[in-house]
Amino acid sequence: MLRVDAAAAAGLEAVAAIVAADGGMAQVWSVVRRVLVDQLGLDACGFEPAPFAADRAHLERSGRLPGTEHRLAAGGFALPSEGADIAVTHGGQLLGRIVLMPRPGRGTTKAQRRMAVALADQLAVAAARTPVLQPLS
Q: SS3 of 51, please?
């Protein structure tokens, strides 16, 4: 069984409440970003609207990072040093991606990575309501 800690659950609840209240993309992103940086121990994280200039390792819905070398670090498996992305999709349409830039020596659990995908799903609702998507950091 996968477990998400209380802080991650509170973050998911906060984002869901903003989305349910029809919050805008910038408002939703500010909470999503804070939770991702805190829970995944990231150096940085950003949103990029589609199309993309470069490819990165892609975090699957299951929390798995296929095709990458897996390194064990404090807290779990480390994200690739060049970063990883999570697709932001709504109604089958790719709207953008969240780019995760890891802190060296910091690992993540599968539950944390799945929580990150759930946050991307919440962000997708706000993104779908936004006429013109802009990069966010």
A: coil
For residue 42, CA distances in Å to 90, 97, 104 come to: 25, 16, 9
Compute mean pLDDT per 10 residues along the chain, 137 residues long, and list them: 73 95 97 96 96 90 81 84 95 97 92 95 97 97
Structure tokens at 85: 């992305």
Residues 30, 40 contacting (CB under 8 angstroms): no
pTM of the model: 0.92
| CATH 3.40.1110 is the classification of domain 6-128 | no
Parallel, antiparallel, or unpaired for β 57-58 and 84-90? parallel
CB crowding 51-70: b at 16 or more within 10 Å, else e: eeeeebbebeeebebeebee
